[in-house]
Structure formats: C-alpha cells, structure tokens
From TrEMBL:
It comes from Raoultibacter massiliensis. Its main location: membrane. This is MFS transporter. The chain crosses the membrane at residues 12-34, 54-72, 84-102, 108-129, 141-164, 170-192, 231-249, 269-289, 301-319, 325-345, 357-381, 387-411. Pfam families: MFS_1 (PF07690). It is a multi-pass membrane protein. It is found in: Cell membrane.
Amino acid sequence: MGEAKRGGKFFARGWFMVLVVFITVIVTQGFSLYSFSMIKVPLTEMLGADPTQVAMGFSMYVLVVGFASLIVGDIIDKIGLKRTLILSAVIYSSGYFIIGTLDSLWMLYVAYFIMGFGNALGGMVIDSGIPSNWFVKSRGLAVGIIMSAMFPGSLVATNLVSFFASSGNWQMACIVMGVLSFVVLFVSAFILKWRPQDVGLLPDGMTEEEAAQTADQAAAAKLIGLNRKQAFRTGTFWLLFAAFALIGIGEQGPFQNMPTYLMANGLDLAAAGSFMSFLAFAGVCGKLTSGVVVDKIGPRLAYPFINFLAAAGLVIILVGGGNMVALYVGGFCFGAALSSSTVCFSTATAKYLGPKFYAQLYGIIYMGKPVMDAVGVPLVANVSESALGWTGAFAIAIFFIVASAVCMLLAKKNKQLVTMEREATRQLVEDREETREPASLT
C-alpha cells in the first residue's frame, strides 16, 4: 500500500511539474521564437533599417542564450531553482519592455541581449532538465508535452502582434508579452522542484527495488553520470554537440525567415502569421509523436527520421511555389520536426551521458544550437537576396539538417556510463538485501 501511495503521489506531483513547465515554455520559447518573426517586418519599417541589421538582433539573442546556458547549471546549484527563476522573470521581461518603447536600432540589440540572458536562466536548460530529472520511462513524452507549449505560445504571440499592428501600435504587444512573462516565471519559481529527490520521491514514482531492475532507473535513483571532464573525453558528447549545433542553421534559418519568404510570394502579414501558427500546430503533433518514438526506440534512431522529414518539407515548399496545398503539406513536414531536437537531445544527454550532471552537460551541448541559430538566420536572409535566391537559401538549410541527423546516428551510450550503471544496479541490489536481512532474522 505504501508503494502504491508513493507512486500515486509521484504521478500527481510529477505531471504537475510538467504542467507548470509547459506554461513557462509558452512565454520563454513560444513568445521569443514566434514574436520576432512577426515583428521583424514592422520593426524594419519603423527603424528604416536593413532587414539583415534587424535579424542581427535575434542573432545576438540566441548567442547570449547559448553562452549563458553554460552557467545555468552552476547557478542552480549555488542559489537554487527558485532564485534562478525569479532572476529570469525580472531580466527576461525587461527585454520586452525595452522593445515596447525603443526607437533606434541599438536599443533593439540591448533588448535582445537582456532577453537572451533572462531566457537562459529560465529557459531551455530548466525546461528540459525538470522532465529529464523527474522521468526515466516517459522522459521523451514528458519533454515532448512541455515543448508542445510552443503552439499556444505562437498563437498568443502572433495574434497579439497582428492585433496591435492592425491598430498601428505593434509595440504594445511586446509590453503585454513582458507582463505575462514576468508573472508566469515569478509564480513558477515558488512551485517547481529541480529533482523528485528534493521532495522525497524517485523518478517515475519508482521504489529503490524497482530501480534495481534496470540500469537506466538505477542510474537515475543513484544519480550517476559523467561529469564535464569525463564527458569531454568521449566521442558521444562531441557528436551530440555537433548535431545540436548543425540543426540551428537547418531549423531556425528558414523558420525565422519564413514570413519574409511567404510575403515575397504574395501573402500578407496576417496570412504569414496564420502559417506560422500552423507550423506550431504541426510542431505539437511532431513533438508528442517524437516523444513517444524516442521512448520506444531511443533518440539515435528517432532523430534522423524526424529531420529527414523536415528536409523533405522544405523541398516541398520550394517545389510547390505559390500552391497553398503544397505549402501546407510541406509546412506540416517541416513544422513537425521543429524543436523536436529538444526532445531528442535532452533524452540523449541523460540516456547516453547520465543524469547526475545533466544541467552542466546539456548547457554546453545546447550552446552550439543558439550559436548556429545566430549564423543561420542572417545567412538564409543574405543568400535569399543573392543570385541563389530562396532555392539556394533553403538548400543550405537542408544540407545542415541532413548533417545533423548523421551526427546523431553515430552517437551511442558511453561505455564508461554503462559500467557506472552496472555498479549502481549492483549497489541497489546489495542495499535492498541488507535492509531485508534484519527482518528475516526476527
């Protein structure tokens, strides 16, 4: 009965953590990714700047997110998750308030620099770390559910910008998003827990006896894993780093320039916004599906399949031209893969390198993606304006998508971690037997 109650308590608490993180992802990922693509056009017109100069603002944002993510794990260890999220609430929302009042290009860069640091503190490391710490068997599904929050985030962001832009005051949308972001992150700081062990539970609601049955669960129960120094010596770590970095160009390059591509093909801003929301809807389908598939067959096989689908989607969009059916079919294929990389890489980090130092390792592995995001957005924009046009721009993105998939395909669980898992399993079995001996003597 006690074990049943413990499992029930975990079910209520663990999935509640998923719900709260889901809401934080709406503001940290949904708002940040989908608002920029929508405000890029009116922002460029208001400032009278070159589109590439404006795109550099987003590049600065993702670069700061990437480099700041390197220290998020250490910050959580030193000041705790609660204070980290409170800092994120203040800093991240401040960036939106600056965008809502700016009147020059340099202020845009300042705003996205501030937003980037705030987002790193309350963003991807925490968004993927909490479900990865709380779950083993359903880790991919939990991360997939959380990342699906980009869809409601896209709906709120795109509709807010469209609504206020129609009345000639698009900047008010940024102020509203700033207020919402502050409230969500501040409240979540008092609810979220980094690990189930912090509240006397184990991942998946398992007992130590259940944990001793499989290596993955034993590793989570004993919190084993490679530290940074050990991970740096493995090919697995660097393959994951390279794969996550390469997808930055292949994913965000075409994504952030998609409204510009659509408007160049005759669609207006509202229609482009609707298509971006459709991409987010496709992303929900893709993330949930990829979460289940990752749990079944592992990220090493699931990720290449998902990203070959993304490459096919971009080809369909290009070949289809202005055909709306082709646009939406290709958009679904591309959108279904959007940000599924988070589901795959968060699971791969915990599964192939161990959960103990997850935040520190994932922060480094994740860093490559924002860096390449920063390269990809202006790169695709520049190539699209050259003689190569949109065909050349999307072809470059497809190349990086395929290269990323190949790197993941070559990654596998590190041998040193396998040894650690066996030792953790043996130790759990011995601990369990020791606790049973006194009872048998009486």
